[in-house]
Amino acid sequence: MKKPFFKNIKLILIFSFIFLGLISSNYMVNLQILQGMIKDQQTNTIKSASKRISKWLDQKIDSMNVIKTFIKNLDHETHPEYIQNLLLQSKEVANFANVYVGYEDDIILSGLKWDRPTNYNTIRRPWYIKTTNRNSTTITDPYYDVGFKKVVVAICTPFLEKNKKQAVVCGILPLNNIRNEILDIPLPYDGIAYLMDRHGKILLHPNKEQELRNSMYGLLTKERTTTVNNELNEYIFSHDHIKQSNWFIIAQLNKSSVYEKINLQLIINLTIYGLSLLGFIFLNMLYTKKQNISDEKLKKTETLLNHFIDYGDRGILIADSKNKILFFNSLFTQYLRLNKLDINDTYLEATNNIFKIYDSKIHTQIYKKIAYAKHFKKSQEHSFEFIFNNETYYFEITILPVLSSDKVYQGLMILLKDATEKEKEKIYKKEQEDILFQQAKMADLGEMIAAVSHQWRQPLNSLSIMVGNLLQFRQFGRLSDEMFEENLNHCMTNIHYLADTIETFRNFYKPSKKCQKFQVDKAIDEVFYIISPHFKTLGINLQIIKDEREDMTCLNYKNEFQQIVANLMHNAKDAIIEDKSYSKTIEVEIKLLDNNFYISFKDYGCGISKKIENQLFQSFATTKKDKGTGKGLYLSKLIAKNKLMGSLTIKNYSNPTEFLIVLPSQKEENG
């Protein structure tokens, strides 16, 4: 009987030790998890609070930029009451305690009634000096405002007034506006959170008596990154920097509370841990839900503000889902030749017709696109021109529907851009290209006449000699029928040669209307044949390098290709003459790769300076100083790209100078 008993005791002891080991292991694991959870919770909590406050500051900074946009084009000496009214409205809309603007001529305008103290000098105030020196939006250090009897900060933005006077616009923010954001941060172990500046001064604290005093943690906040578990005296600190400012969120835990709870009984610890975890999850769910609602509201506001900022160079109008006009800028009314009173408290409908400056066809089309954007929730674009006071204007209009996160229509934004200068630049560029093409035609005509004169010189001399011989033989009575027929045949041969020369040149300079099959190497030979008299006089030879096994057949525009070849050969000739090069050979190498002909032109002349590398293929850019027009390479590149669907590039600038033509072997007949 004892054996079974001892056997059970032994088994019980074994299971007891195993269970004890499991409990101990579980305790150690839970202890590590608890420590990690505290660290993560503090990190996430203060970073989340920092992010919320940063968004709040972003919103206020954006509001100041909008306020600046409204008043910077107003003369404060002419419209002080109007500016004060704008400041008052801005204060209410942007939720500032007050909004004021100071000018370099020591004038200050405020949204609230303000009795200016004696000897108050605007341009010597710290907020004015600091903002103008930085020339950017500045958040002042917190200070106690006597008027509001609160700790406040000022967000100040510099700008230049319409008459170019320096000014600074500021919005007053009581720090109590974010008190709940700081003091409601959930921290375990009766921890507290407070706000501190870069100097270690406490700005917000659960105990108001601690505010504006120095914090014992001030020496460790030089780091702007999130730092957790800095132990100092009786406390454990964590901190995170708030962007756009010199503020830090500090989380403070009491050491005794932390370690007292950790040393509780294992079962109690496990129970508390489980309940705490469930409670944390539940609280986190509630917090996430509220945060999502808040983020959605902020996202809508950011969407409108971002559109406003991104398209600041355009006329802007914003309407709600019922077409009521909520906002428009001065540029919009300027483009439409309207008064602001014509749009205030009106609806974006055809009956109101704010686009009445345009003819009926244009504004009818605009309202159709507005209806389309609203119904199908898709953006619309439209370009149009109209004549006003005998002058043509070009405009581009964009209609953007504003949708919520669940794709519900919230309203629309209309962007109106003056494209007059851009269109006039296109027209001017087209006119210049037409002029260049006309000049090129005249230059081609001159080239043809010069080449024909070279080709005709010898045949004409022969004709002159033969006719002279006939006259002399006739005068001396020695003109026989055989001699007459022989000289006549020689004359006819030369006359046919002259006619063939004219036909060859006529076909060469006539633009191609259709693609035609031709041999690339023979087309280059024809070009050299036409220009050869002058080249031979200068002793310049042409050397064509090709693979005899390759088929040189190409379907493209032959004459246009030959025009480019002729231009490159003339450029090579000029470079050889200028340098008086020993090598008077133009090398042309032809390769066929992947249905494209790669044709390189090399010469060892004077080369091209890299100083004009970026302007080489531009209109009126020339390497020949006063002797060049600057249109040869420009037009050649234009023809290669737009007509031949190929390219013309420079591969090397000197020793040798090398240009490369890429010519598709099969070109579709599409014009």
From TrEMBL:
Which EC class, in a word?
Answer: transferase
Q: Does the keyword Membrane apply?
A: yes
User: Which compartment or compartments is the protein found in?
Assistant: Cell membrane
Transmembrane parts of this sequence: 266-287
DNA damage listed as a keyword = no
Alphabetical UniProt keywords: Cell membrane, Membrane, Transmembrane, Transmembrane helix
Give the Enzyme Commission number. 2.7.13.3
Topology versus the membrane, per the UniProt entry?
Multi-pass membrane protein
One matching Pfam family is dCache_1
Q: Which CDD domains does this chain map to?
A: HisKA (cd00082), PDC1_MCP_like (cd12913)
- Please give the catalytic activity noted in the UniProt record: ATP + protein L-histidine = ADP + protein N-phospho-L-histidine
Domain Histidine kinase stretches:
451-667
Query: What's the protein here called?
Result: histidine kinase
